[in-house]
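Slack export, channel: ligand-projects

TW: morning all. Re-posting the request from yesterday since it got buried. We need the structure predicted with the small molecule present, not the apo form. The ligand is pyridoxal-5'-phosphate; the SMILES is in the block with the sequence. No rush, but it would help planning for next week.
GE: picking it up
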Amino acid sequence: MAALTQIIQPQLGIFTNIGSAHDEHFEDTRAKIEEKCKLFQSAKYLIYRKDQTQVGQYLEENFDPSVLISWSDKAGADYILSVKRHNNGSKIYLIGKDFQTYTFLTSFRDQASLENIRHVITAALSLGMKPEIIQQGLKLLHAVDMRLTLKSGSKGCKLIDDSYNNDLAGLELALEFMSQQITASGRKILILSEMQQEGKEEVVFQKIAWLLKHYSIDLFVGVGKGFADFKHLFPAESDFYESTDMILRNLEALSLSNDLVLIKGARAYGFERVVQKLEALAHETILEINLNSLRHNFIHYRQKIKPGTKIMVMVKAFAYGGGAAEIANYLQEIGADYLSVAYTDEGVFLRNNGITLPIMVMNPGSYHLELLQEHALEPVVYNLNQLKSLSNAMDSNSGLLSVHLELDTGMRRLGMSDQELDEAISILQQCSNLKVAGIFTHLAGADEAVHKDFTLSQISSFESSSNRIIQETGCKPIRHCLNSAGIIRYPEFAFDMVRLGIGLYGIEVNQLEQDKLQPAMTLKTVVSQVRTLQKGETIGYGRKGEMKNDGEVATLAIGYADGYDRRFSNGKATVLIKGQMAPIIGNVCMDMCMADVTGLNVFEGDEAILFGARPSIMDLAAKIETIPYELLTGIGPRVKRQYILD
Ligand SMILES: *Cc1c(COP(=O)(O)O)cnc(C)c1O
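GE: finished. pasting the full token output, ligand included:
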């Protein structure tokens, strides 16, 4: 911050919020506030929300009162700005320092926006702007979908949809995101509109051309009249169109196939139409994976264990339904050390998608030595027979094979028993080209306090058996035994590595630290039809649903074939529509289900959330007596996966 302060030298500061981001680098919240405040050393105005008490206290102790300007819902601040929400927006009531009052109107209803707006009002008032002028500006604010989204396109393409704004800094960010995606065979294509905010000077176009080169874009497509004078700055094979309509008519000319396409346009260009046309034809049921939340959760688990402890992430079963290649790729970026899959073909799939992290294969079946070696996959050896046949095969193999030994300490699933250890050790002593990269065990009851004694005995038997193997064979393995639940309950037994699974998606199966995680997966669909029904009418197969009163029923484009379990039928589950919970009515069908949306003012095309922040996967699973794992991994291949980065 000290370095930034020198560059920016801000005269007006707004201390918006203190959240949990970057917590891992600070002793406590106060230390983080102190660091942030370095930015405001020479500010003439420093605006803050009084009821953020930690921030308020720090500022009041450390800054000259003449620069501080506070606002709050309640009395005691310079500006009292209270909020009343109504159906289509909110009213913000101001009582100012000199008891001037004013009512602002805004179309926003969400917490974060209302907080931001009140910061803005306070700043504008402090600078002497009149409430009427501020109100005029507020009216022009509207919500924008500010998220970079990775989608699947038709003809094997991947699309990066960034069609909400366009400036040079944003372009660079989007190109950076693009460069982190894996392109197996296709081209990297950028479809870019003119940048209205940046103006039409030559330097802007030069910078764009430089970025193209820097990020090795294979094909550039410029949209807007402004490009006309600067075509010479761009590679000769570039395409230019005067308007969005023109490119829409000529999309065929791009001959897209397996390409990675970044679509970035200023709002006015309406590039969402380009995205729509390039998107894979699929119904509108989407599993949305929020990569920011994934990262947040990853960091939370990393903070629980000693620095230097490695993290293996379990990306078996298509990464718990989230999409193995994309999630593994992101994990590679944020610093995971190891990956693990259940079967060899899952590992091969990751390698074919450019994943370079070490990969452990839990259940390799009969060993395809060549396949494993060719793809640098590290199989688990979980019994003596396997170890024997593997060491025999390695006798006539010139290469080296890294393996992980699984010890059964009580799970009774896979793993070597204590009785097998002697023989295993003597085989390992003789086979020099088998490298024991890891030794691990799996806990049977890490998620429940009642199993504590059992778990501790598993861990202690793991410790002594693995010690023995290490001493007698001289190997230097990574030792690991904790799954997500174990990391929370027994972080002191992390050994050299932990195996993170469900926690990455924001599900804390112990329910001890659920509030510290963010739900990373949201399953959503759209309303296909809404109809008005009368009391007594029945709905769906077997006429199981019945209207208790007159009302409306919405048909949703998701069914049990998509992984929306049939046991959710007849009110077992509710879905979130228009911010309200609507119960499922009647039986869930294969491709569709119905929800009672009486009084919710629902229309065709409205979004319905099956799970996410609300309803939570945990609650939903409990309703049908299963576990979140089953719900996640059951989401069908027909459901599009989309990855968003806020
Ligand atoms: C699936 C699995 C994990 C991860 O379990 P979570 O409960 O999802 O954290 C860890 N270790 C092994 C051996 C597994 O099979």
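GE: first-pass observations. Residues 314, 362, 442, 483-485, 499-503 surround pyridoxal-5'-phosphate (CB under 6 Å). The mean pLDDT is 92.
TW: perfect, thank you
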